[in-house]
Amino acid sequence: MVPFCLAVLCACSEPEPPPAPNGSSAEAEVRLEVVASGLRDPLYVTAPREDARIFIVEQGGRIRIVENGRLLDTPFLDIRSRVSAGGEQGLLSLAFHPRYASTGWFYVNYTDHAGDTRVERYCVSGNRNVADPGSARLILRVDQPFANHNGGLVLFGPDGMLYIGMGDGGSGGDPLGHGQNRGTLLGDLLRIDVDRGDPYAIPPDNPFVGRAGMRGEIWAYGLRNPWRFDFDPASGLLYIADVGQNQWEEINAAPLDQGGLNYGWNIMEGAHCYARNACDRTGLVAPILEYDHGDGCSITGGLVYRGARIPAIVGHYCYAAWCEGWIRRYKYHPAREAPAKQWAFGDVGRITSFGEDAAGELYVTSGNGNVYRFVPAR
Questions:
Q1: Mind listing the pLDDT tens digit for each residue in 128-142?
Q2: For labeling, which of 66, 157, 336, 371 is most exposed (least CB within 10 Å)?
Q3: Distance in angstroms (rounded) separating the CA atoms of residues 288 and 313
Q4: What is the dotted CATH code of the domain comprising 6-376?
Q5: Rounded Cα–Cα distance for residues 373 and 307 (Å)
Q6: C-alpha count within 13 angstroms, C-beta hemisphere, residue 350
Q7: Average pLDDT over residues 15-19
Q8: Would you list the domain boundaries of the chain?
């Protein structure tokens, strides 16, 4: 696929991982292992730095902990009374402050009873396995005109800034034109500094700071519903999986320090003119990978694997199709195309998200109530 704008993609490269033992394929080297079951709509897995526990977000408004292989009965946080859950709404993600060990701070993204997005900060209590629900501090609130396309991920970047994925506000086809409107926080990837300002500061190197009619919080725009994105410092890339409209699902990648990029929605859906008419692609960034709805719908954006347990897939971006339930991996090479490979895991339900622990090992959450971990097959 030829990008619309070649200049935005760096010629990044990295060494290939060592081959799998005995020449076997990466597909044969990986299986999924259940680490927690009986959950209510798990949507995300993460962990603080240098912490052996994993934290699981449930859509209804709870955060659960798995410690020493056991799902704890008492939730880490329970804000079900504040959350509107169902469909694409709910408690959607969790991010621990880079200095969580000293601050005790973590951030959540959820939809409130008005259906609007709230990013809030909480603090752990004196019990390391229980947060203080009374410590809530509102960081950002964004009005949502419709009940879908909320985005939902909060994630600290390598630069220490908090990034927030925001969908276009919903309905279908972006009827309010948010994707190309830099005067709104919808249809964007936001970047804010939660260590300065009240309740946050806008980083001075954000691309639209001081531009008339544009929001300084915006790092990138032209997004339909960036449900999940990922930073991969080893390759110097930011990956964004954007859920498609009627026909095309897409994965984007760009240099970590390249702000102000326009990913094309709703001029484009994937690498194609959305309205079926001629469209001006000038300045738009093409996806590095796309597939149509005959192959799978509603991409569940994933992560680049950087763990130690499965060398054969180090550097591979892992993602899924929510409707079909398949899981694939893709090794991005800026100079050449490479095929995506699909695992034969069997029926693991509808994959709602990917996540990782403090060691960089990979997890998936499923609509069947399970959380799975990628482990070596042998």
A1: 999 999 999 999 999
A2: 336
A3: 19
A4: 2.120.10.30
A5: 12
A6: 12
A7: 43
A8: 6-376
